[in-house]
Design brief:
The protein is mostly helical. It has 27 helices and 2 strands. It has helices at 2-13, 32-36, 52-56, 63-66, 83-113, 125-151, 157-176, 181-209, 215-243, 248-254, 257-267, 274-280, 285-299, 304-323, 328-332, 335-353, 358-361, 363-371, 375-379, 396-401, 403-434, 436-458, 468-484, 487-494, 498-529, 542-562, 571-576, and strands spanning 38-40, 46-48. Helix 8 (181-209) packs antiparallel against helix 9. It is globular.
């Protein structure tokens, strides 16, 4: 994590327009300063920003009234990257870690869950599918609920993230002590609601708290944590499987509650989003002062010009919210909002429908197919050692004996997740340098080619080189991680006006989870139905990957004509792109 943030700081340090050093001689940043409303000063002491005199002067106009247009280019003034913003981003991005950990842990945990000796008994394929997909289905509900509650100003970004963290902790404990398929499914459903809430609220919170210049890179940190959570989950599953810990799956699932507890503690010291403060307070003077306190703590007293410009922009958005209709139809009736929502939903659907989670949920299955000659799979001689393997014909003893054979595939899944992490780091360094549009188009082009090669590697008459499917999977995830993984979340946090942001992000996030569920529930059936090998379709899922190739190619063609560039634009300028 430290190297990722250092990379951001190095990237921007060479730019003379950006100051990443902070106030000269300032005391080291303390996270508790965010909660107390204090900002380190040059002499090392903490001063409290927020008195009426400090904010408005002695009977003078408010800061917003005193603002002038001092940026001739039309954008925000020079903005700085301070330790306060980095700490806030890292704490918020723990929500991404929860998302990734839950995605990555189920494949390895299922090995023991479905064994009579250590798990819940010899589970059927349907029971396994229910256990896994229940989290995805519940996440749809969580994202929609999060959007509705924030749109109606019931809870803010910070409160929803804390609620999601609490629910994740409860769900992780419930999974760890579950005694039946029903109780385990209930625990995973609670976790799913939490993941849906957090996946909706975290990108929104980060985008509203960080400077516009760093919005892309710091939102990518959230995606880095998602992928890092997947890597850690696969390593933990591998460690418990190799150590032969009795009922180790309980530890695998229960350990997810640790980062959620850390997130709860961290957010006790973090501020609410300044835009939400203004929106909740209706743009009142009290809300304006509180929002200015938050921005001053995050930007620093020396970055007064940026603080005032952001306040003016946010105040303008709040006034637009007050004039807008509160009904759903009224919110979505403006053409620019519908166009932005169409793009946001399309990006989230495309992210999932190119089949990325087949390589997350089914990575061990795919690796088993690639390492097998196919005869064992078709003859039903391979133990049901990997989730969702439907073509099995073995005894309980064979299952228990062959668990060790599946450990290799489970451990190799960490390499698959690591490939996406490498791509994500590349994307984090490039997103604010190259721009959103070129990075997304290059990423999607690489995904299209990689999916075609992956299908070719599984074709009966295709590539016969050992390890070719694994190489294609790694190539796919590097390209995916660099652009298609973070950019749908970044763009959805950028392209909506404030009055519609919570609802639109809720719809887009729900679309992501629905597509995720469709992919998770259909891959094994598609792998068999679309295989070009009529004799042994299970060992040659080439047709399924070529279907994903077609989806990626169509998406690429559409985005070439419809994808705008939002790099370096303030929120008002981005909204104007869709007018």
């Amino acid at each position: 994590f430290g190297s990722a943030i250092s990379r951001i700081r190095v990237d921007f340090a060479h730019d003379p327009r950006v100051d990443v050093s902070g106030p000269s001689g300032a005391a080291a940043f303390d996270i508790t300063d965010l909660g107390r409303g204090e900002t380190p000063t040059a002499d090392g002491e903490s001063s409290t920003a927020g008195s009426a005199e400090a904010l408005t002067g002695n009977g003078q106009d408010s800061p917003i009234d005193r603002l002038g247009s001092n940026n001739e280019a039309g954008g925000l003034p020079k903005q700085t990257l301070r330790s306060a913003v980095v700490v806030l981003t890292l704490n918020a991005a723990l929500g991404g870690f929860l998302f990734g950990y839950d995605t990555g842990v189920v494949s390895g945990a299922m090995l023991q869950i479905k064994t009579p000796s250590q798990g819940l008994g010899a589970l059927t394929s349907t029971e396994q599918e229910i256990i896994v997909s229940s989290t995805v289905a519940a996440a749809v509900v969580g994202s929609l609920v999060s959007g509705a509650l924030q749109k109606n100003l019931v809870f803010g970004r910070k409160a929803m993230i804390i609620i999601g963290s609490v629910l994740f902790t409860i769900g992780a404990l419930a999974m760890a002590v579950s005694w039946s398929v029903l109780s385990l499914t209930a625990g995973r459903s609670v976790v799913g609601i939490a993941v849906g809430i957090v996946s909706h609220a975290v990108p929104l919170y980060i985008s509203e708290c960080v400077p516009a210049r760093f919005r892309g890179s710091l939102n990518t940190v959230n995606n880095v944590f998602i992928v890092f959570g997947q890597v850690i989950a696969s390593l933990i599953c591998c460690a418990f499987a190799r150590a032969h810990v009795k009922q180790g799956w309980r530890w695998m699932l229960g350990l997810g509650g640790v980062p959620s507890l850390l997130m709860i503690l961290g957010f006790a010291f973090l501020p609410e989003s300044p835009r939400y403060i203004l929106q909740k307070g209706g743009g009142s003077e009290k809300a304006l002062q509180e929002a200015e306190q938050v921005l001053t703590r995050l930007r620093g007293r020396r970055d007064r010009e940026s603080v005032e410009a952001e306040l003016r922009e946010a105040q303008s958005d709040v006034e637009a919210c007050q004039r807008a209709s509160l009904s759903l139809i009224g919110l979505l009736s403006p053409r620019h909002i519908r166009r932005a929502l169409a793009l946001g939903v399309f990006l989230q659907l495309l992210q999932q429908l190119v089949g990325v989670n087949t390589l997350m949920y089914y990575s061990a299955t795919i690796l088993q197919m690639s390492f097998s000659s196919g005869d064992e799979l078709c003859a039903g001689e391979v133990a049901d050692e990997v989730p969702f393997t439907k073509h099995t014909n073995v005894t309980v003893a064979a299952i228990e004996t062959d668990v060790d054979a599946g450990v290799t595939e489970i451990c190799l899944t960490s390499l698959v997740a690591l490939a996406q992490l490498v791509g994500t780091f590349a994307g984090m360094c490039l997103v604010d340098r190259c721009g959103r549009r070129p990075l997304l188009l290059v990423s999607l082009s690489g995904v299209t080619v990689s999916l075609f090669l992956l299908g070719l590697a599984f074709h009966p008459m295709g590539v016969k080189m050992q390890g070719a499917p694994l190489a294609a999977m790694v190539l796919y995830l590097v390209f995916f991680g660099a652009g298609l993984a973070p950019l749908p979340w970044i763009l959805n946090s950028e392209i909506y006006p404030l009055e519609a942001k919570s609802v639109c992000i809720g719809f887009a996030t729900a679309a992501n989870w629905i597509a995720n569920f469709v992919v998770a529930a259909t891959f094994m059936d598609l792998a068999e139905a679309l295989s070009t090998d009529a004799v042994c379709p299970l060992a040659h899922p080439d047709g399924a990957f070529w279907l994903y190739t077609l989806v990626a190619a169509i998406g690429l063609a559409i985005l070439i004509f419809k994808m705008p560039e939002t790099k370096g634009l303030c929120l008002d300028e981005i909204v104007a792109l869709f007018a």
